[in-house]
């Protein structure tokens, strides 16, 4: 338990709910079958690294990691102001609003600070 009697999962759950995030905790190891699924994609966005091992093996970035906290944000749900029967000029929901990579980076930084403040990482 942390200093305030909050278990790590409870702290993460409460934080994610406050930030309107989806959340989970998983082992820090590759997802079975993910390499094949990623290779099967026809196109790779330019911001995604080509080296699959960098994307598949968390220990390349965090040696000794045993678990990963995963957060996600729902895409914008508000109307973008286009008539439903006229697809011209339609914008994908993920392009609406602020870049979710930047938003998530900030939220993850806040979560890391909250965990450091309440838990002993020695």
Keywords, separated by commas or semicolons:
122 residues; alpha+beta; two-stranded antiparallel sheet; 4 helices; flat
Describe this structure in words.
34% of the residues lie in helices and 10% in strands. A two-stranded antiparallel ribbon has the order 1-2. The chain has 122 residues and is α+β, with helices and mostly antiparallel strands. The longest helix has 19 residues.
Q: What gyration radius follows from the Cα positions, in whole Å?
A: 18 Å
Secondary-structure element series: HEHHEH
Secondary-structure-derived class = alpha+beta
Averaged pLDDT:
80
Low-confidence stretches: none
The total beta strand count reads 2
The profile of the biggest β sheet is: 2 strands, antiparallel
- What is the general shape? flat
User: What percent of residues are in strands?
Assistant: 5-15%
Distance between the termini: 14 Å
Helix share bin: 25-40%
Q: Biggest sheet: strands side by side, in what order?
A: 1-2
The helix tally amounts to 4
- Say what oligomer this is: single chain
What's this, in brief?
With 122 residues, this protein is an alpha+beta fold. It has four helices and two strands, in the order H-E-H-H-E-H.
Topology:
Elements: H1 8-18, E1 22-27, H2 34-40, H3 52-56, E2 67-72, H4 100-118
Antiparallel strand pairs: 1-2
């Amino acid at each position: 338990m942390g200093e305030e009697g909050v278990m790590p999962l409870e702290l993460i759950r409460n934080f994610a709910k406050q930030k309107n995030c989806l959340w989970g905790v998983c082992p820090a190891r590759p997802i079975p079958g993910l390499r094949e699924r990623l290779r099967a994609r026809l196109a790779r966005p330019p911001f995604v690294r080509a080296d699959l091992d960098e994307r598949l093996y968390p220990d390349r970035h965090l040696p000794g990691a045993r678990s990963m906290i995963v957060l996600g944000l729902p895409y914008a749900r508000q109307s973008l102001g286009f008539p439903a029967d006229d697809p011209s000029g339609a914008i994908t929901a993920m392009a609406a609003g602020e870049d979710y990579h930047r938003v998530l980076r900030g939220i993850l930084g806040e979560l890391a600070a909250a965990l450091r403040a309440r838990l002993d990482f020695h």
